[in-house]
Write a structure and sequence with these properties.
123 residues; alpha+beta; five-stranded antiparallel β-sheet
Length: 123
């Protein structure tokens, strides 16, 4: 359980160090950047995260369609891998949480569990 957004970001920073690039969360009025590493601050905009979520399989209707097609339970999160980053995308009732990581050697499963815990307590 996290007492605040800051506590969640601090837990991610403790686990990931400088590999943590960005943390963006859905808010009633759009996405809010909870964290952006100093050297990439300004590269990501909240509108970008909202657009990505709206166009993804994790959007409510698309997620339900995917769950019905695969018949393997709820779609919990998506993982996107890029040349220079890994992005974990978690849906929640109002939108989603995005966490971008710069290093492929980060402890991915513990990071996913930490994010899932935060989404579960904030959805």
């Amino acid at each position: 359980m996290f007492e605040s957004d800051e506590a969640f970001v601090a837990a991610l920073q403790s686990k990931l160090g400088s590999a943590l690039l960005v943390v963006a969360d859905a808010r009633p009025d759009g996405y809010e950047l909870l964290f952006a590493r100093g050297d990439i601050d300004g590269r990501f905009r909240p509108d970008d995260f909202e657009r990505l979520h709206d166009e993804s399989l994790l959007r409510t209707e698309a997620r339900e369609d995917a769950e019905n097609v695969f018949r393997t339970g709820a779609l919990d999160f998506a993982l996107y891998t890029f040349d220079e980053a890994v992005v974990v995308h978690f849906p929640d009732e109002d939108g989603a949480l995005f966490v971008a990581l710069s290093d492929s050697d980060v402890p991915l499963l513990p990071t996913i569990e930490l994010c899932a815990e935060w989404v579960g307590t904030n959805a």
